[in-house]
Design a protein that fits this description.
By secondary structure, this protein is an alpha/beta fold. The chain is 30% helix and 20% strand. The longest helix is centred in the C-terminal third of the chain and has 18 residues.
Length: 499
């Protein structure tokens, strides 16, 4: 087994970074847009590593661009409108003196750094010799060039468009608003400055791509995608790019790891459901969590009240191709908690040694949500043909009564304390304790059955009041991360947040 990357190695890398030009990187999915939108408010450039075939969210829909710049789909409509107007680069467009540089003629002239529309600067939709091209980056950078041809050049490359950052003004790195004003269009839209498209998410560990990330002064925000699609061992021993958060903690979400989340919750004194070592031990309503056959990184769920019912359901799911018997034998089986489900989304700041409740939400699951909308008699009819499934499709914001806040903070603080003792360097930034509120003997109590040791995939967190009680306005996770990183840079404490 290769040796793990040390804190000293990360510190040496960060020491070579230009703190004025930090780029925040994230894999394209889960919470990428939450991160990008939030950190841009605090002057950071943003980079998404997207997988081929799943990149348009970042290359088209939410890329940083002029308000007047449009996607390919929109261009087809706008070009029809322009057919009756004087052409762009003919000197005028739709009654204005400015040219949007969207025509082929303008693109050809972009190589000079100027449009052929007079004095306006090139919109970077076609740059000479692909001005952001990096010959040394190999296959990964070939994918990067494809994105540039789509109209998303590297905002971090000073060679692009005369050092203007291709529509993402370099001055943004020191301002507080990612959508800053520009002379030709008033303001920009979008939150993703740069996109690198790779064949597979796991390509992020390729040496050439890592070198590119370090040149861009990238600090990576790890989300669930980062650990689902990449190899734990490679991230811990080969990915020489600073990660915001605890590099070694996320794998402990997996139930087959030593000192996993159940072990940590027990050490922290946080109540959890009863765990059954075997389906044969089931003596009450239980939920069975087993890895899916097709998407091995996701879990299938089913309920059973007896060992016989559990085995019968498992065999049917194996027959239907939903799970494998091998996966069932490794399943987590726990008491089903009857209570109001809630995810407690926290943030721990090592800078000020403070646990913060960012917000609360719960899950939307298919087809369970649709099943529960049916009247009871129709549910019984549906059960003759189809069983409910619990595939997560999103979250929605919920609140809890104020008397529960202190109890929520108490278990959040307990978890941070046990992480500090057991998993160096301890908790850093976002985490979540997911469970339910049960009412027993006249009192309410949290029972936790899942832990996220990184940013939860719930942009709706912002739309609950709890961070607003502390900061005045409710914050997204991206905004809170932006505050933390900017504060650390300004106080020379960045090393304490990275691993």
């Amino acid at each position: 087994m290769a040796s793990k990357i040390t804190q000293q190695q990360i510190q040496d890398i960060v020491a070579k970074y230009d703190p004025r030009k930090i780029t925040i990187g994230v894999l394209g999915g889960h919470s990428a847009l939450d991160v990008c939108q939030g950190v841009k408010k605090f002057g950071f450039k943003t980079l998404v590593i997207a997988q081929k075939g799943r990149e348009k969210t970042y290359t088209d829909y939410y890329r940083v661009r002029s308000f007047w710049d449009v996607t390919k789909k929109e261009k087809s409509a706008s070009e029809l409108r322009k057919e009756s107007e004087e052409g762009c680069c003919g000197g005028k467009m739709a009654g204005t003196d400015a040219c949007a540089c969207s025509s082929e003629g303008a693109k050809k002239a972009c190589g000079t750094g100027k449009s052929n529309c007079g004095e306006g600067a090139c919109g970077c939709e076609g740059t000479q010799d692909k001005c952001c091209k990096d010959e040394a980056s190999g296959e990964a950078m070939d994918e990067f060039e494809e994105v540039e041809e789509e109209g998303v050049p590297s905002a971090g490359d000073d060679r692009c468009c005369g050092g203007g950052g291709c529509g993402s003004s370099q001055e943004k790195s020191g301002c507080g608003d990612g959508n800053s004003a520009s002379a030709d269009n008033g303001f920009s839209v979008g939150c993703v400055d740069d996109v690198i498209v790779v064949d597979k998410f796991s390509d992020i560990t390729k040496p050439a791509l890592q070198e590119r990330l370090r040149k861009m002064n990238v600090i990576f925000i790890h989300n669930r995608y980062f650990w689902v699609y990449c190899d734990f061992e490679k991230i811990e021993s080969e990915f020489l790019v600073p990660i915001y958060g605890n590099r070694g903690a996320v794998k402990l979400e997996e139930r087959d790891q030593p000192k996993n989340q159940y072990w940590l919750l027990e050490k922290a004194g946080i109540r959890t459901p009863k765990i059954f070592k075997s389906y044969k031990d089931i003596d009450r309503l239980a939920i069975v969590k087993v890895n899916e056959a097709v998407r091995g990184y996701e879990r299938a769920f089913f309920l059973a009240a007896t060992p016989e019912q559990c085995l019968e359901t498992a065999k049917k799911m194996v027959k239907d191709g939903k799970i494998t018997m091998e996966a069932f034998e490794k399943a987590t089986i726990e008491e089903y908690v009857l209570g109001a489900q809630v995810n407690l989304n926290f943030f721990y700041s090592p800078l000020v040694n403070r646990v913060e409740l960012m917000g609360t939400d719960t899950r939307r699951q298919t087809n369970l949500d649709g099943f529960l909308r049916l009247p009871a008699d129709q549910q019984l009819e549906v059960l003759k043909h189809q069983q409910p499934s619990m595939i997560e499709t999103g979250h929605y914001a919920v609140t809890m009564k104020e008397s529960l806040i202190e109890k929520a903070y108490a278990i959040g603080e307990k978890f941070v304390e046990v992480m500090a003792r057991e998993v160096a360097p301890g908790m850093i930034g976002p985490f979540a304790l997911q469970g339910a509120v049960v009412a027993e003997d006249g009192r309410e109590e949290f029972v936790i059955f899942d832990v996220s040791m990184r940013i939860p995939g719930s942009p709706g967190t912002k739309f609950t009041p709890y961070s607003g009680y502390l900061f005045g306005d409710s914050l997204s996770y991206g905004e809170r991360i932006g505050i933390e990183l900017r504060s650390a840079i300004n106080t020379d404490m960045l090393d304490s947040l990275l691993s």
